[in-house]
Amino acid sequence: MFVTVSGNITKNTSWTNKNTYVIVGEVHVVAGVTLTIANNTQVFIRNGTYPTSTIKKSALIFDTGSALSAGNVYVKASNNQNVGVGVADNGGVWFVGSAANVDKDGISASFNTKQSNFVASKIFTYFLGSKDPVVKKAIPDPSADQDSVTVLGVGSYEWNVQEIIVSDSGDNAIDVVESYVDINNLNVTNPGEDAVNVQSGKVNVLKRLRALVPLSIVRDRDIFDFEADNGISSLRIANGVKTELLGIFGDQLDLVSDDLPQPTNFLYYFNGTTSKGQSYIYAGLPPPPTKKSNKKTK
For FRET with 95, which of 33, 34, 132, 160 sits at 20 to 30 Å CA-CA? Predict the structure, then answer.
């Protein structure tokens, strides 16, 4: 059974795996509200443009002070006939925390005494987000591109999502903005643009990191894209993490590792388990020094 969700979720709500929930327009889980999603529930986010919404796309947005309690959740793009499709033209899923005052595309996180709380075993996403808009004279201000998963202003105390698996995102697979998150498994295949985008935030991967970004005609498409406008951006790979990386590594990044080879201007590939210690990929101020490293200064 398909259940259409087109308005904000303003009271504690439970979704069952007997239904498929279809997000139509910009749907917010508002502050103080918990959305509970049963294990193996399927969620569709409808493709298309919605001019009256903030980001002009359908999206599921957890506001500052909201909560998610979920097992395994499958989130997919769909058409207006409620059929899953292999086209990314939507706003994806947003997790908005209380750890920073920060804005992205008109969606804001803010310092708040009521913290967010995001708990899930696995979040699978398929064809979420939207690619760079085509600017035409008739459309001088088109809607912005959107990422599959956005983590905005989230503190480590608000985040307990164990695994995120992203396939065929419209733009970046995951965008971590002024947030600090730990994740057991981060798995990205064939993103529309970058696999992992971090803007003045920190990501710790504890068990598995997989980012496969095959070469394509898309320019400036990297495994990692870090921006450090408001402080260091980094990804830490813990010791013992199964790691598979394929693609262009990324520009203006530093790597401190005794396991991963230093990137070049060519295709980067590594497939193995970190066994000599933790690894850091970062932009901005350097991380704490390690006993030994094969850091390359650019």
Answer: 132
